[in-house]
Amino acid sequence: MIGLFIIYFAVVMLLIASQWGIFSKAGKPGWACLIPIYNTIVLLEIVGKPWWWLLLMCIPLVNIAVYVYVYYLLAKSFGKSEVFTIGLLLLSPIFFPILAFGDAEYEGPAGS
What we know:
Number of domains: 1
Structural class: mainly alpha
Shape: globular
Strand content: under 5%
Order of helices and strands: HHHHHH
Distance between the termini: 46 Å
Largest sheet: none
Number of strands: 0
Radius of gyration: 14 Å
């Protein structure tokens, strides 16, 4: 049981560090990833969407489509392909660190 908790904690810390790195690469403050709701607003700024898209993320079923599209725009903002978007959606603990700590450069908001 303790081992499972340690693995879970390590994955959560990896995802937080990855989001911090993604925010920093995009010229946003890294600490913003630690604040609920605000981190989503910053993510929307990175991909070039207005803050009110946060309201769309609160509507059941619509939120799934919005998150898929936001992840698509995030991949495009860093010059990655649609296949990378699938990786972000299905294998987040692997693909978010690749985006944050790899050689991907922020190219500007893809949703503008």
